[in-house]
Specification:
The chain has about 150 residues and is an all-alpha fold. The chain has 8 helices and 2 strands, in the order H-H-H-H-H-H-H-H-E-E.
Length: about 150
């Protein structure tokens, strides 16, 4: 899940080549090939898999080890946001913002409420596999400018 940009690009190039061969389309962009195939890049597939695991944790279907990674937020009043996971405070980027404990709740809170409140795992999986995490805040989704950093 947390690999560098070069590994991500290698996997996506392999995925792109496979889609070009399958559809015999050598002119469309990778994004257009993904839309035509109804699939997502490897990073978005990893995010979807992580969200399935978080759904299992919140509904008591995961192992005890996973239950210790994420913490539910207790609401004293009924809020409209329905953010179920507590986003931990961070002190550093490497061990804070780039950690699974921080990244999972941030992305979980981006999922639309109708998907988060699915009745069972089967329904959640079918809905999450069509969700595109467009506003991901991770390092792989940001652009890098030399001398400036990630923007």
């Amino acid at each position: 899940m947390f690999y560098n940009c070069s590994t991500n690009n290698k996997i996506n190039r392999l995925h792109e080549r496979a889609l070009r061969i399958v559809y015999n389309d050598y002119h469309s962009s990778f994004e257009q090939l993904l839309i035509n195939d109804g699939s997502f890049c490897i990073h978005h597939q990893n995010i979807q898999s992580l969200m399935i695991e978080i759904f299992k944790i919140l509904n008591g279907m995961a192992s005890n080890v996973c239950n210790e990674i994420f913490f539910s937020r207790d609401h004293e009043i009924n809020l409209r946001s329905h953010q179920d996971l507590k986003v931990p405070s961070i002190n550093s980027v490497l061990q804070g913002k780039n950690s699974l404990r921080y990244f999972g709740p941030v992305i979980w809170n981006l999922i639309p409420i109708d998907i988060r409140k699915s009745e069972n795992l089967y329904i959640f999986k079918s809905k999450i596999k069509t969700w595109n995490p467009e506003s991901c805040t991770c390092r792989l989704c940001k652009d890098y400018l030399g001398g400036m950093g990630y923007i």
